[in-house]
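Problem: given the chain below (127 residues), write out its structure.
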Amino acid sequence: MLEKHLYEYAVIRVLPVLEREEFVNVGIILFCKKANYIRVHYAINETKLLAFSAQLDLTQLTLNLESLANIAHGHSNGGPIAALDVPSRFRWLTAVRSSAIQLSRPHPGLCDNLEKTALRLFEELVV
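Solution.
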């Protein structure tokens, strides 16, 4: 019998014009404390984002999303937050903030395979 993993995930959203509060889903972050697992998947749909704002700096957006992924995955170039344990990194990333990149509130779930679930959620919610 496969072990079920209790996980949490949040959707990564970009608000091309912060004041309008319209957003485009660009990724997901999935976290499982017991498995010490965290994964970020993202994709930038330039056409969709530029339809909201032709002035959106896609280069800066890409750098910011790469930084978010580096923090989540604990890479050394992710700065001091990346050095925290997995649960602390997930909580820091999903904290409510008013910026052009926001994460949804975390949602729970159960699964047999964390990586397959992360990819499924990415396909369903982003692509």
